[in-house]
Design goal:
6 helices; alpha+beta; Alpha-Beta Plaits; Nucleoside_diP_kinase_AS; 15% strand; 123 residues
Length: 123
């Protein structure tokens, strides 16, 4: 049986301290101050997705980090024009997905939901 993964999807920017924690691994980068200004400039919509291969599926839907390299039909390919303002964030690995979901959601904030078409999508 295939392993179920978690991924975190964020429509940027945000206005909470957790945004600063989210990007702490980039603190030494030259673009960090601008990233923090951006990420704290307004609200975000946060989502946690779960499923087999969900990280790769989400990344395909989101598109390449650089919108100019993103395929048409992806969020970034259709809606973004530069890397620094690329509309959406998605976890790059199952491990980071688990970490980011835990960072943004407290115990009890996530609900389990099964769409009616689920039996038709997975074995």
């Amino acid at each position: 049986m295939e392993e179920v993964e978690e991924t975190y999807i964020m429509v940027k920017p945000d206005g909470v301290q957790r945004g600063l924690e989210h990007y702490k691994d980039l603190k030494g980068k030259s673009f960090y101050p601008k990233l923090i200004d951006y990420i704290t400039s307004g609200p975000v919509v946060s989502m946690a997705w779960e499923g087999v291969g969900v990280v790769a599926s989400a990344r395909k839907l989101i598109g390449a980090t650089n919108p100019l390299q993103a395929e048409p039909g992806t969020i970034r390919g259709d809606l973004a024009v530069q890397t620094g303002r690329n509309v959406v964030h998605g976890s790059d690995s199952p491990e980071n997905g688990k970490r980011e979901v835990a960072l943004w959601f407290k115990e009890g904030e996530l609900c389990e939901w099964m769409p009616a078409q689920a039996p038709w999508l997975r074995e």
